[in-house]
Design goal:
By secondary structure, this protein is an alpha+beta fold. It has helices at about 1-20, 135-140, 150-155, 185-190, 195-205, 215-225; strands at about 25, 35-45, 50-55, 60-65, 70, 80-85, 90-95, 95-105, 105-115, 165, 165-175, 180. The chain is built from six helices and twelve strands.
């Protein structure tokens, strides 16, 4: 009985991991989720479009399936998207799809999830480059897949044949049209001398934890109050 129970628990954990997208991320499947998930795109014009969705971990773009062919949604038309059984929410921030991990009226905290492709570039002379156009061009030597107008099933068949990579997470604070990394010096760069002094006192009073999205909502509140829209 005990053995059967342990087996059942293990199976449930494995199924849960698969459902949530737990997977080895590879250059032949550079997507956040283990497969395209049911989702909704909320358009800036008010329309709702239902598709199978995924987020490309290098391009930062929202991809969807159209008759089992991978297409790319135009970021300028997207208000936000919800993906998967948990309705994970993604907003377009600086042109990239970022996952909303905490929000309130006036702003939100977003997780910019990307692939650590730089780690794969060790020995090529390109390691340590920032994720900009030059770096993305250099990544082409890694043969990163996920191009548009490719058959979804062909991508799935090649899923495990690429190089594995880890994820990178960078939190961002977004409020009133202002965007910055959730790093104290980046927030202070938005403030004048008087506001910086206010912010120093505010941090001391509220004990902000810079890696905790819920705690960072306090920074959202501060910026929303002191910075004009």
């Amino acid at each position: 009985m005990k053995t059967r129970l342990l087996t059942l628990i293990a199976a449930l954990l494995l199924a849960s991991a698969s459902w949530l997208g737990a997977q080895p991320y590879t250059t032949t499947w550079p997507y956040l989720y283990s497969d395209f998930q049911d989702g909704v795109i909320y358009m800036t014009g008010g329309q709702k479009i239902y598709h199978k969705l995924n987020v490309h971990l290098m391009k930062g773009r929202l991809h969807y399936l159209d008759n089992d062919v991978v297409k790319e949604a135009f970021a300028g038309d997207i208000f936000y998207a919800e993906i998967g059984p948990e309705s994970d929410k993604f907003m377009v921030v600086n042109g990239d799809m970022m996952k909303v991990v905490a929000e309130q009226p006036g702003g939100f905290v977003a997780d910019h999830i990307t692939g650590d492709f730089e780690a794969l570039m060790v020995g090529t002379g390109a390691y340590g480059m920032q994720a900009n156009t030059e770096a993305i061009q250099s990544y082409s030597s890694l043969n990163i897949q996920g191009a548009v107008n490719v058959n979804h099933m062909l991508l799935l068949q090649e899923k495990q044949s690429g190089q594995e990579f880890d994820l990178r997470h960078q939190l961002y604070i977004v409020t009133s049209g202002k965007v910055c990394r959730a790093v104290r010096k980046d927030v202070e760069a938005l403030l004048d001398k008087t506001q910086k002094a206010q912010f120093k006192s505010y941090l001391k009073e509220h004990k902000v934890k810079w890696k905790d999205p819920q705690s960072l909502l306090q920074v959202v509140t501060f910026l929303d109050e002191v910075l004009p829209e």
